[in-house]
Model the fold of this input.
Amino acid sequence: MARARKYKKLEKNFVSRLLQGISSCFSAIGNFFVTVVKLLDRKLTVMIVPHSQGKMISFKTNVFALIMGTIVFVGIGCSFVLTNRHTIGTGAEISRLKEENRETLASLDELRDENNNLLQTAKRFQTSLSQSLSLLGINDSTSTSNFTQQNSDLAGLFNTQDVVPGSLKETADIRQLNSYLESAVEPVEQIGKMLETQNALFSDIPNIWPVKGGIGHISMAFGQNVHPITNQWYIHKGLDFSTYRTGDPVIATANGQVVTVGHDDSFGNYVIIKHKYGFYTRYAHLNTVRVAKGQQVTQRQIIGTIGNTGITTGPHLHYEVHIGSDVVDPAKYINIK
Done:
């Protein structure tokens, strides 16, 4: 029992002290706010004294109003500074955007000029391509019919009626031009194939200068001539090429097969090559021979060198072209391309 009374007494003392502490705390807080209110409520008199003899101005206020007025004034000043800086930044950004817009417009004008030039060039290309296809006998109905659907010729590229709203006219022009160029690919490929075939044909037909590098000159033409040794009229069955020296390379004038490598008193050292389509070529008065009978040779391959063998008055190449058993003028086939 005594111990229980002791615990109750201690409990009452603890509660009493706790309540006193809380009361002291609230009392201190209340005193602090009272002090602050009194401080803020202190009366102040603000006097404005002009340097001139004007009337002095004075007004009464308190500390709280003065502090709030100062805060409001500083806030307004800061807002003004920030707003001004933002306005200056916005003005600079607008100026930059205007300059970029001017540059973009200038680039767009340049693009339009180049686009017009491209269209004019495309029109000339269309005309040239059509003429070339007609000359070569190639049917260009694919490209023509395709582009007919695009307003029949490139002049239709300047028609703005079909431009999609919101898109540039130049975009529509380029789309139609791209469509035309795609349709023109096939005829151009046909031209390429034809040229490839013709190149193969020209490689099989004697048609180039028989001295490497195209050097020298024709010292005697085909046909009726005065023989340089007998001084009698005779039929010269080929062309004589002279470089005034011995040893210049002689080349095959077309693809073929060497059928004869020989020597006689008239032609000296000579080579005969058989080509396609019944052509034969003879190369005579050679100083040296660099091919053998039965060998396959290609156009422009060196087969020997200019010499002075056989009946000659100086170093030169005697060159003949035969079609079957007929002898023809080689000059008609040189540079036939």
Q: What stands out?
A: The first helix runs from residue 2 to 40. The longest strand covers residues 279-289. The radius of gyration is 54 Å.
